[in-house]
Amino acid sequence: MADTTAHLDGNCLAGPLSEILSVEPTAAWWRCPQCARSGPLADLHVYGPEPGLTARCPGCAHVALRLVREEGHIWLSMGGSAGAFRFPVA
Ligand SMILES: [Zn+2]
Fold first, then answer.
1. pTM, entire model
2. Residues with CB under 5 A from ligand 1 (ion)
3. What pLDDT is attached to residue 17?
């Protein structure tokens, strides 16, 4: 089990995340944790648009990503049960 007594606050993620979130999304490569299939973002099967977009692995239908847009925000969940992040948008 990880040592949870020594930690940094979430602000230390700002630098690495800004590098990831500022690149062209279609350049992303994904890998399915369930069937190990991998490929470019365009290979994912996307369902929606309401209540949001759900991208699934074309090999096994495992949820790769969920994206829900609401007034002033976008919720992003990577993977099937990894929680979600809410990003403010203009
Ligand atoms: Zn899969």
1. 0.76
2. 32, 34-35, 37, 57, 59-60, 62
3. 83
